[in-house]
Amino acid sequence: MTDAADAVVIGSGPNGLVAAALLARAGWSVTVVERNDVAGGAVASAPLTLPGYVHDPFSAFYGLLHFSPVFRELELYRRVQWASFELAAGAMVAPGRSAAVRTDPALTAAAIDGCAPGDGEAWTELYGWWTRVGRQFLNVIINPIPSVGPTARFALAAGVRGVIETTKMALAPTSAVARERFSSDEAQALFAAGISHSDVSVNDPGGLPEAMALAMVAQSHNMPVPVGGAGRLASGLAGAVTDAGGRILTGHEVTHVVVQGKRAVGVETADGLSLRARRAVLADTGPRRLFLGMVGTDHLPSSFVDGVHRFRYGSGIFKVDLALDGPVRWNGVDLDRCGVVHLTGNLDSMARTSAQVATGELPDAPMLVVGQPTVADPSRAPDAGHVLWIETHVPPRPNAGPWSEVCDRFLETVLDRLEAHAPGVRSSIRGHAVHTPPDLEALNPNLVDGDLGGGSNALDQQLVFRPVAGWFRYSTPIRGLYLCSASTHPGGGVHGMVGRNCARRVLRDALIRRV
Length: 515
Description:
By secondary structure, the protein is α/β, with parallel strands linked by helices. It contains 17 helices and 16 strands. Strands 1, 2, 7, 8, 9, 10 and 16 form a 7-stranded mixed β-sheet that branches. A 7-stranded mixed β-sheet has the order 5-4-12-13-14-11-15, with helices on both faces. A two-stranded antiparallel sheet has the order 3-6. The longest helix is centred in the first third of the chain and has 24 residues, at 119-142. The radius of gyration is 22 Å and the shape is globular.
């Protein structure tokens, strides 16, 4: 079978679907090719435990998506029903010691001030900076590099001194800024909790923008969840593609990008399907899988191939989904109403845990990111039931042995830590599902070594260095071939900006060629 479209998109992760939708809206014929039977990539829902319980195996909370222009442009406010929380996010440094982001910034500040006088004022000042300058700074980060419009708006909002101070702050370790601004361990942990979503330590430079963005977006946009599970978001993104005239082919794994005359002209699948791309091929895949596998090194400059080999993935994720027969009783103020609870410890313990993971050790006090989607969306569980979504960073290949041997022991460590902060939770567990880093990669080959971020967030793999130094604007050495996955700028997280940025680059290149 041979078919043709203006653009062929490899992979139906959120970035691939966003790119496909925007190209189709621009009048292009677009075909998305997906190996799995359902579109969405790491945006999915599944009945992992017991009947009636709906779990999200991968991503689950979408504050950054609500901040992103993709949310408005693809009308995801209409395509998906959303639910939000009374408290968006919280952090616990120890049982009985917590802080949380409430819907009203004044209430957040008042609660934090109870941890240490002055911390509430510091939160108010930080959120004031966010509303005046920080939003514009985040827009600079998530748009292509360089991005004239967002940069000009940021410079206008911040002024010369503000630009210098913001840039300096962005390069500082998260722990340094947290200690500079807040006195209490609780407020410091709340500010820094977002770092637990990445492989970067609180003591590493370059991790602050992600941590601060998650904290401030939680304050301004909450941590919304799709009613009925993350799969509803996947359906909404797929609908944006098909409503614009694009099509999605599931159950077909692309194994080869056809290159003729140094140009990508189509793709071939494992089951013999051949698709011709008249104008472009976009790949929502990892760089190694694309360039070393589907394309082949014979078509690429040796310096670029070397860069692909040097691309690093971050730490893996150990994912636990629990079916509970009742709500969690947290040993923390109002956390029963909180969307995402971060069990971080203080800044020093956060740094220690990251160091253990980086050296191959299974952490003895893992940083747990615990999501409670049924607090806002009770439709995901039977009456009185709840689901818990837990992830924690781990070494992809532990020193203690393969995951098949250490999984059960580490699960006990995770559940013991959860029980210490939420007494009685273990007795309410009615079912559980566990995914180790190898399990996650088996489910989705983009999650190499269980890395949900598409590559390390270390400073040398951000901005102009992602995925290969100098190749950060989605084009590749193969004409007509573009990379639109989280492995390129601005990286991981379900915000759709990689897909948006890539689609705009493709359209611009096509316009230039016509001229």
